[in-house]
Fold this protein.
Amino acid sequence: MTNIDTVRLGATGPVTGRIGLGAMGMSAGAYGAVDEADARATIHAALDSGARLIDTGDFYGMGHNEALIGRVLADRPREDYLLSVKFGALRGPDGGFLGIDTRPAAIRTFLTYSLQRLGVEYVDIYRPARLDPNVPIEDTVGTIAELIEEGYVRHIGLSEVGADTLRRAAAVHPISDLQIEYALISRGIEPVILPTARELGIGITAYGVLSRGLLSDSLRGGKPLAADDFRAHSPRFQGENLTANLELVEALAKIAEQRGVKVAQLAIAWVLSRGSDIVPIIGARRADRWAEAVGALDIRLSDAELAELEAAAPADRVAGDRYAPAQMAMLDSER
């Protein structure tokens, strides 16, 4: 049953639900052990609620994520869903990241395998996972534009790029959306990147809305991270940083309890309040977590309540970068 409002993603992108589903956590190597039955139930719950947009990457689980999504969607009409696929991240047999490759021939190769694993004839939004320092963005966007003409892609997206790169890319072909981290405690896009995207008619698909589970109840009370949880290597989840950040979460929890909602729902509602051109991507791994996220759509925050949230968890008080140093160095959006 559809109950999520729809919005257009940017000036030229597809019409999608007000929130989308991020599938990264459904593959091992992200947040620990994964249950495929839970993943299947979550994907169907998201689509049944009207979400439409499923975000994945060809390097999530080294192809496992796409193959999983392909199996789950095999019996659903193609018009039921939109597939947003990131490409270009190179990984070794040990799972380590080896860099980024967006050369034209590589893009065509990556897409070929993605279409095979997903079991579809086209991808709705195709985007480089990061800016390749060795390939002009014009060449990357130009190649995807050719794939649009050939019928293999519908729209072009970008991920974690800065304002100058947005302008250069948009001069080659319309960009539907920029996928970038945006949360109550991760507000780096506000001074320059977000205004530029709005000027160019580019939507925002916001990931990290819950700061990888930090802005939720999942780590309250000192719950340990699993050994195979990538957050164990993230600065915000280590030692004194985590202790300091959980103090911010406790302050938010008091507000949530007064409202009779969850911390995660407040965090999602805050991002939703930033504008209808921002579509939060929620990395739910269970159907009940998805239902909780959908509940955030019913929360209306007054100006006073927004100010209270921002005072309880100021972005300048969060401890630790959002990625480890090597990954931060790859972010055009942070330059």
User: Anything to note?
Assistant: The CA atoms of residues 195 and 223 lie 38 Å apart. The mean pLDDT is 92. The chain is about 35% helix and 15% strand. The radius of gyration is 19 Å.
